[in-house]
């Protein structure tokens, strides 16, 4: 076992015997909430923690995602927590949320504020998502079976121009650029007729020739659970299978299949000793053809070449043609040779038809064991818990690759018929013989924790609890990749394991569940920092006050419960230190020189080459300093449940190497040589207000639950080491997700218009190009004229919100979940809108600028170049990302229990529903568009049976 883990455990034991107390959450009569290294009665929760009861949610919503519902049910969560990525822990072990399914999950706790995550140390400093799996209970053995079939339908496909339209407009682009037209009228005309698509191709990647209308996903899950006073057990097993949307060549047989088993056993070994063991095995297999079909779909021009060349249109009296056909190992359906060009010796069609396939296989094994001891005989209220886990993931691919040739045809009209009279061959045409291992990787994670817990109530009102713990984990990764069947390989293993190690202490007190104080802190360690700077202490203090128990609140009838909380924390972390040894300076040997560096004295001055960076022995941790206030309330006889938090946090000591003002300019020698070290300098500020409101009311037999949650969020770069000529170019003072660009003033309408305007420096400007505002009024449009256009919402939009609704009437129920955002902007800057060079033209170019459409145009002039002037972030391409998405809707019917009286069936439910059903936005079409694999709508039916 790693010595650091042993050190943690021994230290925790030693400190406990020195009478340092530990914490176990107060267990009240209401539900318990999973928090860091324990549980807390919801009544006594003082940190910013939100919980989703996934087990209950899965009764009204089918979703394989273990984090289902979080976006629409937890304020402050939008794929991250308060704008920052979170650490995911499954039963206390760092694991991927994708490796566990919703049916295996009991609940998910989102730990948002710094005080809530302090005990976890450095790698949890941006928030934690705690996934707790299901367990057995005191009950006879029960079996639940769930089966679901879903159809995944593309929301939309990009709309690109047909070949004849593309060639027509490309000729226009040529004229705009003052060069000769590329395509003659006869070619365009013949393409329009469509009588010979092999000579005049018009390739549509999104046609039914290549794609299914939908792909199908099916799955079945079984759960077995039960137990008695001595032993509880739980077992989850299931399989999922889905085919491919693509149906061409090897893709017809493509699939993804997974099989998983997860189980746990809780045992009472003695009246004072308990143990738990958990194990999971996951098998994932997939089969796929070769080539990047979806990538090529957005780039390969429709007229470029025909993927297939028909043999019956080839002149076999030509010896080379007959030889190619006779000796080909890749005759497609016995009727076609593969088409291509000298620039396209491989393409997505030939890859799918002739290149072979890839089988990917991953195997995951997860095991952990927990031992819990009641040490009340030594000291009343004292207990001990230790856990150890091993996770192992291996991945490898089995591949079969074949070499093939493509042919570029020479067409002619023979006796009034189009014929291929010549073929130019590119590539080698031969059969492969063996499968080979293409790539293999593995990851191994070891986790260890030990903790002493103490919980006592003195004189009825004084509730004391404490926790002392040691926790750590390490992940080791390795890879080995074969580039071809011969076996050329690249192997590698990360030099340093990803890890976390810390000691933690929490001490809590509350008086009569009315006044609360909590101290939590962690002593952390990081090998990323220089010696002497590798340890730090992260403290936090939380206060709570239940106002509803005060005498002055007794006459406030509509308040059932009201609690105020506040916390302060200063966490230290190395998450934002991207690599090891960044505190060290080093030189690079230049291969063609005799020394490590050389000095040149001359009129140009001295130049020292070979220095890559300077050293900084004072490099230290990044800090998260945070203040939060919160409110929890139950109102109007518990009709309304309210939770809200205001937070402001400063992330200080972020690393930078720009150092425009700290170091003299000659420290930065040139593009490849520098004496500049990494230093702790930059500072970011994030603040926001998150909230969640839930209302529950019964109207006769109709039970209605409505939830609304959201977050108002802002961020700012509060400190940067930068010098600019104009203040508006500074990053300091602007949002962390500020989108910078130019202010567009419309199109240039003439050469005279261009001459009068300040000179734009982005290539040659012509009428129909975009005109930008001269912000600094220096007569030149360049990078100094970019301004802050708005917030990009890269981590989270300025306002995000979620809505959930549950209606239950007798045996029928309806559940709906939606989420949305406002206040952010985006740029239409993907290849669908920025049609440059020889890229495909999308339908947006129909509204291009010409002299005839100068007054109504909504798109710049067409060009065969890179569009250096037009294709830049500016207000012309800017749009608001405001939207609301109906994420999930599900209808359920639960058969009455009396239906199955006298049978082994305890219950049966049927359900149907869908996900990603509707987007409401002014920019809906753009937001639903993907130039790669399409966004999907999901429609499903299923059942759940209990035995």
TrEMBL record:
Domain TonB-dependent receptor plug, by residue range, is 75-128
Claim: Signal is one of the keywords in the record: yes
Q: A Pfam family this protein belongs to?
A: Plug
Q: Which residues form the signal peptide?
A: 1-25
Q: Which UniProt keywords apply?
A: Signal
- Extract the InterPro entries matched here: Plug_dom, Plug_dom_sf, TonB-dep_OMP_SusC/RagA, TonB-dep_OMP_SusC/RagA_CS
Name assigned to this protein: SusC/RagA family TonB-linked outer membrane protein
């Amino acid at each position: 076992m790693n010595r650091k883990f042993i050190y943690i455990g021994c230290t925790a034991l030693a400190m406990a015997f020195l009478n340092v107390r530990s914490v176990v959450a107060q267990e009240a009569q209401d539900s318990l909430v999973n928090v860091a290294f324990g549980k807390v009665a919801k009544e006594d929760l003082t940190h910013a923690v939100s919980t989703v009861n996934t087990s209950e949610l899965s009764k009204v919503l089918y979703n394989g995602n273990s984090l289902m519902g979080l976006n629409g049910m937890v304020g402050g969560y939008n794929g991250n927590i308060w704008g920052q990525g979170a650490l995911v822990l499954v039963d206390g072990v760092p694991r991927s949320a994708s490796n566990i399914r919703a049916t295996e999950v009991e609940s998910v706790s989102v730990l948002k504020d710094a005080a809530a995550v302090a005990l976890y140390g450095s790698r949890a400093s941006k928030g934690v998502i705690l996934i707790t799996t299901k367990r057995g209970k005191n009950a006879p053995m029960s079996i639940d079976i769930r089966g679901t079939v879903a159809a995944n339908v593309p929301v939309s496909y990009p709309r690109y121009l047909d070949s004849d339209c593309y060639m027509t407009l490309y000729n226009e682009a040529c004229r705009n650029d003052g060069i000769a037209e590329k395509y003659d009228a006869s070619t365009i005309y013949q393409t329009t007729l469509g009588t010979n698509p092999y000579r005049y191709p018009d390739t549509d990647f999104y046609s039914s020739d290549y794609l299914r209308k939908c792909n199908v996903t099916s799955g079945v899950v079984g759960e077995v659970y039960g137990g008695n006073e001595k032993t509880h057990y739980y077992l989850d097993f299931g399989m999922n299978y889905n085919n491919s949307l693509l149906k061409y060549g090897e893709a017809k047989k493509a699939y993804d299949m997974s099989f998983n088993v997860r189980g746990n056993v809780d045992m009472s070994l003695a009246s004072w000793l308990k143990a738990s063991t958990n194990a999971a095995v996951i098998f994932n297999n997939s089969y796929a053809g070769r080539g990047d079909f979806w990538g090529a779909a957005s780039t390969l021009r429709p007229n470029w070449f025909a993927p297939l060349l028909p043999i019956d249109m080839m002149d076999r009296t030509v010896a080379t043609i007959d030889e190619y056909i006779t000796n080909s190992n890749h005759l497609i359906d016995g009727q076609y040779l593969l088409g291509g060009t000298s620039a396209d010796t491989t393409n997505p069609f030939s890859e799918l038809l002739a290149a072979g396939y890839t089988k990917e296989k991953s195997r995951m094994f997860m095991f952990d064991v927990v031992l819990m001891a009641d040490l009340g005989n030594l000291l009343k209220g004292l207990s001990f818990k230790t856990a150890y886990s091993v996770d192992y993931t291996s991945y490898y691919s089995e591949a079969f690759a074949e070499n093939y040739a493509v042919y570029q045809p020479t067409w002619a009209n023979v006796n009034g018929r189009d014929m291929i009279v010549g073929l130019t061959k590119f590539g080698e045409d031969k059969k492969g013989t063996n499968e080979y291992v293409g790539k293999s990787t593995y990851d191994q994670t070891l986790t260890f924790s030990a903790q002493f817990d103490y919980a006592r109530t003195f004189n009825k009102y004084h509730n004391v609890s404490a926790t002392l713990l040691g926790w750590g984990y390490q992940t080791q990764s390795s890879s080995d990749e074969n580039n071809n069947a011969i076996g050329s390989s690249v192997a590698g293993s990360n030099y340093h394991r990803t890890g976390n190690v810390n000691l933690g202490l929490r001490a809590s007190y509350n008086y009569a569940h009315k006044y609360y104080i909590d101290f939590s802190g962690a002593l952390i360690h990081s090998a990323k920092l220089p010696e002497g700077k590798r340890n730090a202490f992260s403290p936090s203090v939380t206060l709570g006050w239940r106002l509803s128990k005060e005498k002055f609140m007794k006459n406030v009838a509509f308040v059932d419960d009201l609690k105020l909380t506040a916390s302060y924390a200063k966490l230290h972390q190395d998450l934002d230190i991207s690599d090891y040894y960044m505190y060290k300076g080093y030189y690079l040997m230049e291969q063609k020189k005799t020394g490590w560096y050389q000095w040149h004295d001359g009129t140009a001055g001295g130049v020292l080459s070979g220095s890559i960076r300077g050293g900084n022995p004072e490099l230290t941790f990044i800090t998260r300093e945070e203040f939060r206030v919160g409110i929890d309330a139950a109102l109007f006889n518990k009709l309304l449940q309210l939770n809200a938090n205001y937070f402001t946090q400063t992330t200080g000591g972020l690393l930078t190497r720009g150092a425009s003002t700290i170091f003299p300019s000659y420290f930065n020698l040139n593009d490849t040589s520098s004496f500049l070290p990494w230093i702790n300098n930059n500072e970011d500020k994030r603040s926001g207000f998150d909230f969640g409101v839930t209302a529950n009311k019964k109207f006769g037999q109709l039970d209605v639950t409505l939830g609304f949650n959201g977050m108002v969020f802002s961020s700012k770069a509060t400190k940067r080491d930068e010098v600019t000529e104009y203040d508006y170019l500074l990053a300091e003072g602007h949002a962390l997700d500020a989108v910078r660009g130019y202010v567009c003033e419309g199109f240039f309408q003439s050469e005279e218009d261009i001459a009068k305007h300040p000179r734009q420096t982005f290539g040659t400007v012509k009428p129909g190009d975009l005109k930008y505002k001269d912000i600094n009024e220096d007569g030149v449009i360049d990078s100094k004229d970019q301004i802050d256009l708005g917030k990009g919402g890269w981590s989270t939009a300025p306002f995000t919100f979620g809505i959930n609704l549950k209606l239950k009437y007798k045996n029928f129920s309806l559940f709906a979940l939606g989420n949305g955002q406002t206040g952010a902007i985006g740029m239409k800057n993907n290849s669908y809108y920025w049609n440059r060079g020889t890229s495909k033209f999308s339908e947006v170019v129909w509204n291009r600028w010409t002299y005839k459409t100068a007054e109504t145009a909504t798109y710049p002039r067409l060009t065969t170049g890179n569009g250096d002037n037009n294709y830049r972030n500016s207000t012309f391409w800017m749009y608001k990302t405001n939207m609301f998405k109906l994420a999930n809707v599900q209808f359920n019917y639960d058969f009455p229990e009396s239906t199955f009286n006298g049978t082994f069936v305890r219950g049966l439910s049927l359900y149907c529903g869908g996900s990603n059903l509707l987007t409401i936005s002014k920019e809906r079409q753009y937001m639903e568009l993907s130039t790669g694999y399409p966004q999907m709508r999901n429609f499903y039916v299923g059942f759940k049976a209990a035995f």
